[in-house]
Write a structure and sequence with these properties.
single chain; mainly beta; 6 helices; about 5% helix
């Protein structure tokens, strides 16, 4: 298989190759199939990957990748140097050998330097870690979890840095599969667990979570995906308390057997109506909740063609072909060393169709799925992590034509100091001078598999041209809207518009 000077495996049209391991592949790709090529395949071949998340931890302008592993495989940190990756976890001090199930980037102290929270399994007996990056200390990370009160133990799943009380300080949520969930309020130099006081100490078997303002009242609400037949939760944030309204809204998945359960939830405005919708991957079936407005949702997975998948685990939205409609990657976990049944659901507008290509299906993604434009060309690339014995944690570069990549804009939402403290903010792009929605996305609060990234929000555009951008952030006085009109994405560095809120 030929490899070019950049370390990419060169592939034919639509990302297909003529043969793999002696096996002929279909000559014809499905409709709307993407075009990808493997990036540095030898570097990303190690098995056992689980959470994966992106952030520019060293501030050089390139997005870097952290991947957590299971079964005594050292965690990896890949430094991105203008599209070429180097593994630096050991020298950076984050090469833990403990079975890692969660990872999240965030700036909890608002100093502009990102921290990395790493969550382990209970059977390891190792407390979770919060790594602070010491740029002046040789580029190393130092574990400060005990110092700030978050060195907890448990079967850790989704970790999210969010400001749940709109006080301007980033708080920390941790979900557990085997214990009540925890919500740590940021007290400045220390965290205090307030989950019980706030009513959000969910004791069910949570394996995935995402925060978004589901009723548009200016406060981040919490959806938790629970396993082993337990009900899902949608915790409405009323300010002084959280209230589970999942049953009231028909979103709790009532009546399922013990071998069914939900996993990776993800949020996007899939139909460009201006409201954020919710997809929930799961064992038994998936759910797609269309936001009807006023805090009400309608389940439409079967009607939209995304209900399938036997043991769906992660999910992630991304407009890989920049047609203005977000597409959806969903993968399934199987307890055997075989290729999983992955779905790449192309958003056709009226419904979704599977546009999976053999290159992606061959490598699979039992756990981590992240859409990211790591090379800044406007086209979304794809990072997968597979924890089966035959799986790697591959990175695929989107090789669509340059003109297609230019039909996009990316938005980095930061605070007035330019720091990444605005997780849960909403980004909407409009046709210039109109209220026609071209795309709506969420600044990441939990994605892929038990991960949280800090990276620009990507919106594909059906046409190249100027747009209006609107960012909604949550404040103590309600939803704050920041507008930037007549934006031309083309001269922007890496097509990224920075919006201070």
């Amino acid at each position: 298989m030929p490899i070019d000077r950049r370390g990419f495996v060169r592939l034919g049209m639509c990302g297909c190759v003529a043969a793999v391991a002696g096996r002929r592949l279909p000559a014809q790709a499905p409709p709307n199939a993407p075009s990808f090529e493997l990036v540095q395949p030898a570097l990303f071949a190690t098995t056992g990957g689980q959470p994966n998340c992106w952030a520019d931890y060293d501030g050089d302008g390139d997005l870097d990748l952290f991947v957590g592993f299971k079964d005594a495989v050292a965690n990896r940190l890949y430094k991105n140097d203008r599209g070429r990756f180097v593994e630096v976890a050991a020298e950076a001090g984050v090469a833990d050998l403990t079975d890692t199930r969660a990872a999240a980037w965030g700036d909890f102290n608002g100093d502009g330097k990102l921290e990395l929270y790493v969550g382990f399994t209970r059977r390891s007996g190792v407390a979770n870690k919060l790594y602070r990056y010491e740029a002046s200390g040789g580029g190393k990370f130092v574990d400060i979890a005990r110092d700030v009160g978050v060195d907890v133990k448990g079967e850790t799943r989704q970790v999210s840095f969010v400001d749940f009380d709109n006080d301007g300080k980033v708080d920390l949520f941790i979900a557990f599969r085997d214990a009540p969930n925890m919500l740590f309020r940021n007290e400045g130099n220390r965290f205090v667990d307030v989950a019980k006081d706030m009513g959000v100490d969910d004791p069910r078997k949570t394996v995935g979570a995402v925060w978004f303002d589901m009723n548009e009242d200016g406060r981040l609400d919490l959806f938790v995906a629970n396993q082993d037949g337990t009900l899902n939760g949608l915790w409405r944030n009323d300010g002084s308390k959280f209230v589970d309204v999942a049953r009231e809204l028909g979103m709790d998945a009532a009546g399922r057997p013990e071998n069914f359960g939900s996993n990776g939830p993800s949020v996007a405005d899939y139909d460009n109506d201006g409201r954020l919708d919710l997809f929930v991957a799961g064992y038994g079936r998936n759910f797609l909740f269309h936001n009807e407005g006023g805090g009400r949702f309608k389940e439409v997975a079967a009607a939209m063609g995304v209900a399938g998948g036997d043991r769906a685990t992660p999910s992630s939205w991304g407009d890989y072909d920049n047609d203005g409609r977000p597409d959806l990657y969903v993968s399934s976990y199987i307890d055997r060393p075989v290729n999983e049944k992955d779905f790449l659901f192309h958003n056709n507008g009226a419904a979704f169709s599977d546009a999976m290509i053999d290159l992606l299906a061959k490598h699979g993604a039992t756990h981590g799925v992240q859409w990211v434009d790591f090379d800044g060309d406007g086209a979304l690339d794809l990072a997968l992590a597979n924890n089966n014995p035959n799986g790697g944690h591959y990175l695929f570069r989107n090789t669509s034509p340059a003109a297609q990549g230019r039909r996009s804009i990316q938005v980095s939402v930061v605070d007035q100091q330019g720091h990444a403290t605005r997780a849960g903010s909403e980004v909407r792009v409009y046709a210039a001078g109109t209220r026609k929605v071209l795309g709506g996305r969420l600044v990441d609060t939990g994605s892929g598999y038990c991960s949280q990234s800090v990276m620009p929000v990507h919106v594909g555009l059906a046409n190249d041209g100027t747009v209006d951008v609107e960012v909604t952030t949550m404040t103590r006085s309600g939803r704050k809207i920041t507008r930037v009109a007549n934006v031309d994405p083309n001269p922007l560095p890496r097509r990224v518009l920075v919006v201070k809120t």
